[in-house]
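Hi all, long-time lurker, first post. I run a small reading group and we've been trying to get comfortable going from sequence to structure in the token notation. Rather than ask abstract questions, I figured I'd post a concrete chain and ask someone more experienced to write out its structure so we can walk through it together at our next meeting. Sequence below, copied exactly:
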Amino acid sequence: MRGLNSTAKTYMNEQIRPILVALLIVTTLVVTSAGAAGASRRLRLDQKPTNIDVSQRHTNESEEAVAVNPTNPKNIVIVTNVDHPAAGLFEGVSFDGGSTWTTKLIADNDNLGDACCDPSLSFDSYGNLFLTYLYNIEDEVPIALSTDGGLHFNRIANIAKPPKQSLLASGERRGLFRFVDQPTITAGEGEVWVVFNGGGPIVATLHVRGCGDRPEGGGHAGLHAH
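-- Answer (accepted) --
Happy to help. Here is the structure in token form:
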């Protein structure tokens, strides 16, 4: 009986061993394939865009505004505060999605005046780029327009805050500060809105133009304090 059992075991081993080896190979291939796929997926997820120092300046920039042209998404414009000089804003313009940049200082006592800070940008649906910011001294909010993707700006308006309002009977404080502050500009369908702190009240200014027009002049159609 012992001899028969031994023979049977040998026969079973010879029959089963190839099956076990085949299963082991298949399992190894599946695990390896899954691991490679997981590693590839992690590699794709871990890929991050490279940070680019657009300004290449040794001093700091702050309060940056970024706008992307809806008619050409590769046209990106950046405007920021600068530490030096006292008057001026840094501007970077790209037409290749940020791979290369054209940079300069603007509003450094040029045709845009003497900028202090707080830039805000907005493209409209036609590719017109609107810019607002604060002056160093003047108590107004300037509006500038570029029709060439941010390469050149022209000032089209200076928005003054409304006359100082008297205090309400409830004691609510309004109009207690001299200077305008924190302007934000937004272009919509045939409209451009500018909102800023008017020294207490928030001032909203609306410039209306015909649908499809490319504005060459400036001004504002309405001025409302809330």
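A couple of things your group might point at:
The radius of gyration is 32 Å.
The chain has two domains: 1-48, 61-225.
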